[in-house]
Design a protein that fits this description.
The chain is an alpha/beta fold. The protein has a domain of 285 residues: Alkaline Phosphatase, subunit A (3-Layer(aba) Sandwich), CATH 3.40.720. The protein has nine helices and eleven strands.
Length: 408
């Protein structure tokens, strides 16, 4: 991983030009992107505390020129949604949950040490030795995975493998050890978009890159070395268990028919493209080494990977009746100048890019309609006449402004 040693400017700056000169093929360091830090960074829409509340200082103001990347061309050819916001404040775990249920999971019995401590403004309390200024170092917080009232706003691990928590020795290898200091989230029972689709007989699947290898890897006990989960060496598979939201729900527990039907390996997605035998709704999640996450992936490899997937879709038998939405789960800790719209206690968070690619999509259009992650659920619900999940936000569009259905 390439580090940035130069003094950073006190303004937005290009990461891939001098004096930083870090190419898109190199991994930068990670930046904090957690729930309460993100809320404070946004600061009521002022977006003026990103550097002050970051653990990476001014790096949060950095950006790349993506105009030579493959996805840029896809955006020019189809629809770029430039007013699309992440569904929840914070990181990947919570935003994946909002992608499938528009909800924040609850862990009512979580121990106190897993809960954040917040002040009267709803921000994290500082520790006594926290620097007075960001110029003196990163702030120190009484942070945690949960809100004080038990909502899992930051990453917690699933109770089912693959999990970041190994199974117990001589226990059920399919389950995470729930006796550790930071136990896994108890299986959830909230309604997901998958439940609504299944109950109406609509076929669907969540395809995760490396799923079968991660499943085998996750069932190893703590005395074994894991080779797949959280492996961040360049060129190796990196499976992120908290990016697999359906694995947190009791309806998809190990041994259930629905788990076998709906939680699938990414290779099956590619095979389905070739044969034209994909379900009516398909989610595709790449492995961590190609998901563009700061710290363990680079920009270029992830962009190339998704562009390759898009090309495979366009040349497959399913293209003629497909709508593809390419979206990011969260902002990675980087600043954006556009204030998020009014929402609820959980979001929306910062603006993120989204592409709508389809024979039904408008061509060469920048769509300024207000969207957030729950807009994807809105589109699925509209297409299949599903009841809207309660957390879907009323002011977010349903993505149909990006489509031209008059000639189809």
């Amino acid at each position: 991983m390439q580090t940035i040693d130069a003094k950073l400017p006190n303004q937005p700056f290009r990461i891939d030009t001098p004096p930083i000169n870090m190419p898109l093929s190199k991994r930068s360091r990670d930046l904090v992107h957690r729930f309460y830090q993100h809320k404070e960074q946004i600061n009521g829409g002022r977006n003026n505390r990103f550097a002050a509340v970051s653990d990476a200082g001014g790096l949060t103001m950095g950006y790349y020129d993506g105009s030579k990347l493959p996805l840029w061309q896809w955006a020019k050819d189809y629809v770029l949604a430039d007013n699309f916001f992440m569904g929840a404040f914070g990181g990947s775990y919570l935003n994946h949950q909002w992608l499938i249920c528009a909800c924040t999971p609850v862990f009512a019995t979580a121990p106190f040490h897993m809960r954040a401590q917040i002040d009267a403004n709803g921000f994290l309390k500082r520790k006594p030795d926290s620097p007075e200024s960001a110029l003196q170092g990163a702030p120190k917080f009484y942070d945690g995975a949960l809100s004080p009232d038990g909502y899992t706003v930051n990453t917690v691990q699933p109770a089912y493998q693959p999990s970041g928590i190994a199974p117990t020795v001589n226990g059920d290898a399919r389950l995470a050890d729930n006796t550790v200091k930071h136990p896994p989230l108890p299986p959830q029972t909230q309604t997901t978009i998958g439940d609504l689709l299944s109950d109406k007989g609509i076929s669907w699947a969540w395809y995760a890159g490396g799923y079968q290898r991660a499943l085998a890897d996750g069932m190893q006990t703590p005395d074994k070395t894991r080779q797949v989960i959280y492996t961040d060496e360049p060129g190796t598979l990196n499976f992120q268990p908290h990016h697999q939201p359906f694995n947190y729900y009791a309806r998809y527990a190990p041994g259930t028919v629905e788990r076998e039907q709906h939680l699938r390996d990414g290779e099956e997605f590619l095979q389905g493209l070739q044969s034209g035998q994909l379900p009516q709704v398909a989610f595709y999640k790449p492995t961590g080494d190609v998901n563009q996450h700061p710290g363990y992936s680079d920009v270029l490899s992830g962009d190339a990977h998704i562009a390759d997937i898009l090309q495979k879709i366009k040349t497959s038998p399913v293209w003629s009746n497909t709508v593809v939405i390419v979206a990011y789960d969260e902002n990675g800790g980087f600043w954006d100048h556009v204030p998020p719209p009014t929402g609820d206690r959980f979001g929306p968070g910062s603006r993120i890019p989204a592409l709508i690619i389809s024979p039904f999509a408008k061509r060469g259009v920048v769509d300024h309609t207000l969207y957030d992650t729950t807009s994807i659920l809105k589109l699925i619900s509209k297409r299949f006449a599903l009841t809207l999940l309660p957390g879907i936000r009323a002011n977010a569009g349903d993505l149909t402004n990006a489509l031209d259905l008059t000639t189809h």
